[in-house]
Backbone:
């Protein structure tokens, strides 16, 4: 009887040991499973976070690129507008210089045998200010000697340059070539003269206000 109990005790102890070991294995397995699941969840969270960051980064880059594109378009538009303004100003300056050269030729070219006395001055009146026209009217009243020998001058503009520029006044220097002919000369006398011209803007039109030969 005692021997049976002894064996039974041993069996009971063995059973308890096996049971405890099985529980430990189950507990360890549960822990491992929980750890793995936790790691998986953490990894998924990290991947999700990285994906969200990448998406946000892509959106930010898209916004930056769009803003840069808009800014570039605005800058391009500003540059084009500025270029158009500069081109317009350049065209206006070129036209005024050309006008000055033409008026210099009209002013300097004349003959004392014209059918109309001082025709060259009178031809300037439509391009001149009221003040200059008063001077032209006074000059044109001077008598002409019809018995005088023939004399004629032809003026050609060679170049022109701005001496002063402004929104309402401009000062221009025109270099000219003068060819003088008389009744006794076989060849024209050639000389080079400089003409100083002043322009004033009247109703958006540049008009000649003063004109002088320079010595």
Residues:
């Amino acid at each position: 009887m005692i021997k049976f109990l002894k064996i039974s005790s041993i069996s009971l102890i063995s059973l308890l040991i096996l049971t405890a070991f099985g529980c430990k294995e189950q507990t360890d397995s549960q822990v491992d499973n929980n750890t793995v699941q936790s790691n998986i969840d953490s990894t998924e969270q990290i991947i999700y976070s990285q994906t969200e960051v990448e998406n946000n980064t892509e959106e930010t880059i898209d916004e930056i690129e769009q803003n840069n594109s808009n800014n570039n378009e605005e800058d391009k538009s500003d540059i084009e507008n500025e270029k158009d303004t500069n081109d317009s100003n350049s065209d206006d300056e070129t036209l005024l210089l050309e006008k000055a050269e033409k008026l210099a030729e009209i002013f300097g070219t004349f003959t004392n045998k014209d059918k109309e006395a001082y025709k060259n001055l009178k031809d300037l009146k439509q391009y001149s200010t009221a003040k200059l026209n008063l001077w032209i009217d006074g000059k044109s009243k001077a008598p002409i000697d019809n018995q005088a020998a023939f004399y004629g001058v032809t003026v050609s503009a060679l170049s022109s340059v701005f001496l002063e520029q402004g929104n309402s006044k401009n000062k221009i220097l025109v270099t000219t070539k003068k060819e003088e002919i008389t009744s006794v000369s076989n060849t024209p006398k050639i000389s080079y003269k400089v003409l100083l011209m002043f322009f004033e803007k009247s109703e958006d039109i540049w008009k000649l206000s003063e004109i002088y030969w320079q010595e």
